[in-house]
Design brief:
heterodimer, A: mainly beta, 4-stranded antiparallel β-sheet, 3 helices, B: mainly beta, 22-stranded antiparallel barrel, 5-stranded mixed β-sheet
């Protein structure tokens, strides 16, 4: 009889519960978004634009089930204040065939971006909508190397740091040094270019690894930089040793400054886990400046100071 | 004290019957009624589950009288079960958001395989758990690391076994649990949301006692031995025996082993109410998966403390705690994508608290605490760089508190002060945390309560906020340059009794997070901080209803709440923001020694972030994107707005049938339990990449057996 007293309670509970088995979807209803990658480069007269669609997250490209979602119906326009640049179809060789077998379809525009100019990219797709994005190519950097002539004296390399003054106008920059030389192989002078490390990092086992210039934060300011020429000496020595059996002529040293505008800088950092060795975060956020879409529309500039090495430069033969 | 075991009964109520005047014993079972005029009085002592006892006492002018009460336990069949936090004492009359939970309360809640105090806490209003397989909990919109867990004054930083399936506190070692869900009084500090203050029980003083029990997860043995008239010891050990149950719960093969060991040595003086306790808690968990693609985990606690209390002078009761607590945890990735990580917290300190019993039942508390704290973590970030985080420091706090009584009005006013904030951090007035509560008897036993408190926190746990579940939290100090976390609590409530047998209470609360540590959503690179100070707020209304009779006891608690966090210009709901929460508990005595308990839990869906698409994200493999056009890219899942979606409603029904028996001087308890009686499919998490859904506990029957002598 006592159990009967509990009956209303259990009836209530059962009424509330039986049949409740809600479904839930970890995915929001999939709405494809236009994905654009376009990086304007002042050192080339051909600019590449890739436009795709995002795909259903339930598809796994690693398993080969995700389609290569090229936007076949897209109308892409690249323009500045005065001009709209025509884009034409092209195919880019795909070296990594693990997920996709075919080459990469893209658009190209014949254009050398102007320093300091803003460009707008618009992608219109009948099926996916329209997205736009704007980027501004950084103005020319101002580079000053007062003692550039010291590059002609390799005897001083071990004790000299080359002072470099750079007025940047972008969020990020990279300062590189390149060594160019020619090697006579089978009667033909072949050109070579080696990147000079910024430094060498000594490992725990005593060996040292080269550390190359990296993208750094700058902004609109005058950077006072120095480059240890000891690393140039090491690069020269390495080239001499490698081509010891050949005639070798060192031609020039190139100081290259690249300026990365804000969106390209941000995107580059974020897809690499902030490129922050000291971060304690483990999330992997995304970045885009494509309104309504994904990807990045960015720009970078390339400026160079070239120092021609004298014909009688060390080891030239 | 218990008339049989001679164990102290904390928070018992002691009352002079005519003229009526009552006080509550402290956690050590000590009470003092000052300023009683000479005369003859009837004094009563009561405690839930015990027979009320009345003594006639003669008071002579200028002479202190000691009146000890030996209360006899009521036979089980006569006990009126309180059902979670219905205690009793004047502590609850005074404070607005405190729940006192007895050992018997803990055992009321149906269990999966093992009764657990944290599981029992979760039926209280304002407490949210995000899954069946974790007893971690969130209080009134607070994060899991905002709960201060104390065992006899020792801070426990990793209070969970088995990835949080249950706590490291065996029910048998706990005498009383105080849960302050908000606006807690001075003397507790360092956490923003709540305080769970466990008081371990003493060993029995009358004879040797032994208790053994086993369930699907673990076996345990408890022994209590009186070593002399003044000295006794309690030893309790628990160890895992099988990983089959975990496999059933977590749907994966995770051979998990653990143990916990608790000892308590108690010495009691003959006079001055002096007692000294030496207690220790050691726990160890190891989770080693046979799957090389699953990381291994391990974590352990080592806590040792000495507590001494005494009535030093006529009205001065002093308590000193000296303690040390260490927590260590590590993650070993093996071949998984996880990264290696270790975290540790080492703390040693001393706490002194003096209580002065003033006139008119006023209580004055003044206290001081000093901590030597070391927090270390080593982890590998997404760059693959190893990070060693280490911080050492001395932290101090002091507090002053006055509890007063004027007819229908009771007040509790004080301030908790962060001494390090004043002396070394230059935070001035921000280091003072005012707190007060008042309680006014509106009519009969209906009391209106109001409370406010300010709280701060300097250490916290970090994990990936975008993870659907977190199994490894790293403790760190608030990053340099950021303000400590700080919150203000405002609480108002009304509680009382309906028709003599129905207790009810309703509280509204507002919690303002003036400063919390959250992701810096604008972080791009090295120059940007990982974390920044954000803000937030939590508010809601809680109500509970209790009905008790000899045969049937009913309990219901409902919470309606909102929690939002703000970082920069972005506002979102944290993962534990549950809008509606309902807990129903019924206990029914089928026969003299047989009772049936049912618990139904309902919660509206918790927030989660949906995936809205995927794309092949170019990474510009060479720094110089001259040739980016040839990259295929890496598949990247695009998430929607953070925590903008909601999981389905959660609900499940658990039932337990308990049978108590005795033979040859021993007592036994047989429990049959069914978790998720109607096999509700409550989602636990999704694998975002594959979409695979993992549900929480299915229909799961189990049994427990306890034998005690």
């Amino acid at each position: 009889m006592k159990l009967l007293k509990l009956t209303p309670l259990f009836v209530l509970v059962v009424i509330l519960l039986v049949g409740c088995d809600d479904s839930v979807n970890p995915y929001a209803p999939f709405e494809p978004r236009i994905t654009v990658f376009a990086i304007l480069n002042t050192s080339t007269a051909t600019q590449v634009v890739r436009a795709y669609s995002s795909f259903d997250p339930t598809l796994d490209p690693n398993g080969g089930t995700a389609p290569d979602t090229l936007l076949n119906d897209a109308v892409i326009t690249l323009s500045d204040q005065n001009t709209s640049y025509a884009l034409r179809d092209t195919t880019i060789f795909r070296s990594d065939l693990s997920n996709y077998k075919g080459d990469i379809a893209a658009k190209v525009a014949s254009l050398t971006p102007a320093f300091g100019r803003s460009y707008t990219l618009t992608v219109q797709s009948g099926s996916k909508g329209t997205v736009t994005s704007t980027t501004t190519v950084p103005p020319r950097a101002i580079i000053s190397i007062p003692f550039l002539f010291s590059l002609s004296n390799p005897l001083a390399y071990d004790v000299t740091n080359l002072g470099i003054y750079v007025q940047t106008f972008s969020k990020g920059y990279v300062l590189r040094m390149l060594l160019e030389y020619e090697v006579l192989i089978n009667g033909i002078w072949l050109p070579y270019q080696d990147e000079v490390p910024k430094s060498f990092v000594v490992q725990s086992d005593g060996t040292s690894l080269p550390s190359y210039a990296a993208l750094d934060l700058s902004g609109e300011k005058l950077l006072v930089l120095s480059w240890p020429l000891k690393t140039l000496a090491t690069t020269i020595t390495a080239a001499v040793q490698q081509y010891n059996a050949y005639h070798l002529t060192f031609k020039r040293v190139v100081i290259e400054v690249r300026q990365y505008e804000e969106h390209l800088y941000n995107y580059y950092q974020i897809v690499r886990g902030f490129r922050d060795a000291r971060t304690i975060r483990t999330d992997a956020p995304d970045y885009t400046n494509v309104e309504g879409g994904l990807g990045v529309f960015g720009a970078f500039t390339v400026e160079r100071v070239v120092f021609d090495l004298p014909p009688d430069f060390i080891s030239n033969k | 004290m218990d008339s049989t075991t001679k164990a102290r009964l904390p928070f018992a109520t002691v009352q002079i019957l005519e003229p009526s005047r009552g006080v509550s014993a402290n956690v050590d079972g000590f009470y003092l009624i000052p300023g009683v005029p000479s005369g003859i009085y009837d004094v009563a002592a009561s405690y839930v589950g015990y027979e009320r006892k009345i003594k006639r006492v003669t008071i002579q002018a200028g002479k202190a009288v000691t009146v000890d009460f030996d209360l006899a336990q009521q036979p089980l069949e006569q006990q009126e079960v309180t059902i979670i936090g219905n205690a009793l004492s004047k502590v609850q009359q005074q404070n607005v958001s405190v729940h006192l939970i007895q050992q018997s309360d803990i055992r009321l809640v149906p269990v999966a395989v093992q009764e657990d105090v944290f599981r029992s806490l979760q039926i209280l209003p304002g407490i949210v758990s995000t899954s069946d397989v974790t007893s971690q909990f969130h209080v009134r919109g607070g994060a899991g690391d905002q709960n201060l867990i104390l065992l006899d004054g020792m801070r426990i930083f990793g209070p969970y076994h088995a990835l949080g399936l249950f706590s490291v506190f065996d029910t048998d070692i706990i005498q009383t649990t105080e849960l302050y869900a908000g606006a807690y009084p001075p003397g507790f500090g360092g956490r923003l949301s709540s305080v769970v203050n466990f008081s371990a029980r003493d060993a029995r003083r009358d004879r040797v006692g032994v208790k053994a029990s086993a369930n699907l997860l673990s076996s345990k043995l408890l022994a209590e031995v009186p070593l002399s008239d003044n000295l006794r010891v309690l030893v309790n050990g628990r160890s895992s025996i099988s990983s089959d149950a975990y496999r059933k719960f977590l749907k994966t093969d995770i051979p998990l082993s653990f143990y916990d060991a608790f000892t308590r040595l108690t010495w009691e003086g003959d006079e001055s109410h002096t007692r000294v306790n030496l207690q220790s808690l050691f726990t160890d968990d190891v989770l080693k998966s046979s799957n090389p693609d699953e990381p291994d985990y391990g974590w352990k606690n080592k806590a040792v403390g000495v507590s001494a209390s005494s009535l030093l002078q006529d009205r001065l009761f002093m308590k000193v705690d000296v303690f040390s607590s260490t927590y260590e945890a590590q993650r070993t990735p093996k071949l998984s994508t996880a990264t290696p990580a270790t975290t540790s917290v080492e703390e040693a300190g001393m706490r002194i608290n003096a209580t002065v019993y003033g006139e008119s039942d006023n209580l004055y508390n003044i206290g001081f605490e000093m901590l030597f704290l070391t927090v270390e973590a080593q982890l590998v970030n997404l760059e693959g760089a190893s990070q060693q985080l280490s911080s050492h420091g001395v932290e101090g706090s002091a507090w002053f508190r006055v509890q007063s009584s004027w007819d229908e009005l009771k007040t509790d006013i004080g301030v908790h002060t962060d001494l390090a904030g004043i002396l070394t951090e230059g935070r001035g007035l921000e280091s003072f945390e005012p707190r007060f509560s008042l309680s006014y008897a509106v009519v009969s036993d209906w009391r209106f309560k109001l409370a406010y408190g300010r709280f701060s926190q300097k250490i916290l746990t970090i994990n990936n906020e975008d993870d659907l579940i977190s199994v490894f939290d790293t403790w760190i100090h608030v990053p340099e340059g950021l303000k400590p976390e700080q919150a203000d609590h405002y609480v108002a409530g009304l509680d009382g009794t309906l028709f003599e047998s129905i207790g009810t209470g309703t509280q509204v609360y507002y919690k303002s997070y003036n400063s919390i540590v959250v992701y810096n959503r604008d972080k791009v690179g090295t120059g940007d901080a990982d974390y920044i100070n954000g803000t937030g707020e939590s508010y809601g209304v809680e109500t509970l209803l209790r009905y008790g009779s000899k045969d049937i006891n009913l309990y219901g608690a409902y919470t309606l709440s909102w929690t939002t966090l703000k970082t920069g210009g972005f506002t979102y709901h944290p993962r534990y923001d549950r809008r509606h929460s309902l807990n129903l508990l019924a206990r029914y005595s089928l026969a003299e020694n047989v009772h049936l308990t049912a618990r139904w839990e309902f919660g509206s869906g918790l927030p989660f972030t949906q995936a809205i698409g995927a794309y092949n994200r170019l990474e510009f493999g060479s720094l110089y994107p001259d040739d980016y056009g040839a990259e295929t890219g890496v598949p990247y899942t695009v998430l929607g707005d953070k925590n903008a979606a909601r999981l389905p409603t959660y609900h499940r029904l658990d039932v337990s049938l308990g049978y108590r028996f005795g033979f040859f001087g021993t007592e036994g308890n047989l429990g049959l339990h069914v978790i998720n009686l109607y096999d509700r499919k409550n989602p636990f998490y999704f694998d975002r990449r594959t979409g695979r859904r993992v549900d929480m506990l299915p229909f799961f029957p189990s049994a427990t057996l306890q034998i005690s002598y």
